Amino acid sequence: MSGALRFMENLLSAGVARGTPLLMATIGELLAERAGVLNLGVDGMMLLGAAAGFRAAYQADSLILGLATAMGVGALLALVHGLVTVRLVADQVVSGLGLGFFGAGLASVVGAPVVGATGAPRLPMIRVAGLSAVPLLGPVLFQQNLAIYLGVALIPLTWFYLHRTRWGLVLQAVGESPAAADAHGFSVARVRLAHVAMGGALAGLAGATLSLAITPGWVDGLTSGQGWIAVGLVIFAGWEPTRAAWGAYLFGAIRRLPLDLQGVESLPLFRNPNLGYFLDMTPYLFTILVLILANRGRWARRAPAALGLPFIRGQRT
């Protein structure tokens, strides 16, 4: 196999793997925002899910318990945000920021006893017989961790839920015109709380995917701010799961680049011995670029009309 092909194979395979936790968190935030609730605490939920999930899996020697714990704590943390913003009509930005800081702090406390611990069960690798040996496509699509297949399955499932099910259409109605949805007999508060909790569960699962599969183990700051990137990718995706997948996997591939290019001493126009620092910046520069593109011309997508707006029955917003 040529060096270029090997480089692309490693880059794409790692991009899909590293992009999967980001995809899960992005889809979770997408569901919450479709309901009209902005949650800026995604990174905190991911961190708490990673810490609690790894600790539960390590201490109970149970992968299933670890995943369930991660999703449970993520959903509970998101519900706090939901209750504060939906029931108490608090500012969603302030509540979300507070949630993020609280989740990060609590994750440090929960994960402290297992920092550096090894031996926890991991999500297994799955190799599809025959197809995994196909050059380029095999390692990328058919020789991946179970979490990656779960992430891929989320894409069509979320699209089908949003566009082909009754409750998905109700969700969109609540996000666009909560007063109209309320007039048709749907509980705006329940729909919002349910989808905020779903978003939290997916953020917790994303964190557990990091600590139990992608980078097994727990250390403070494990997410490296990926929760914030997920919030940005929802805008890039135009609140659609298929575009969210492209953004997440592309971001994952770009995060891999610093590792693949670590032997390169310089690039054109950037002959700097500290090139590694520049390469570490590329994923975040890319995020800024795609957000700019997402708000220009044919790339632009309109946010749900009621996003960030409280709903009080009988009161105009």
Give descriptors for this structure.
2 strands; globular; about 325 residues; mainly alpha
Structure description:
The chain has 317 residues and is mainly alpha-helical. 68% of the residues lie in helices and 2% in strands. It has twelve helices and two strands, in the order ααααβαβααααααα. The protein has helices at residues 3-34, 42-60, 63-87, 92-111, 137-141, 146-164, 166-176, 178-183, 188-214, 226-236, 241-260, 275-294; strands at residues 125-127, 143-145. The longest helix is centred in the N-terminal third of the chain and has 32 residues, at 3-34.
Beta fraction? under 5%
Can you tell me the overall shape?
globular
* Helical segment count: 12
Q: Can you list the strand order of the major beta sheet?
A: 1-2
> What is the N-to-C order of secondary-structure elements (H for helix, E for strand)?
HHHHEHEHHHHHHH
**Quick one: biggest sheet?**
2 strands, antiparallel
Give the quaternary arrangement of the chains: single chain
Quote the distance from N terminus to C terminus: 61 Å
Structural class: mainly alpha
Round the mean pLDDT to the nearest integer and report it: 86
Low-confidence stretches: none
Number of strands: 2
Query: Roughly how many Å is the radius of gyration?
Result: 20 Å
Question: Helical content, roughly?
Answer: 55-70%
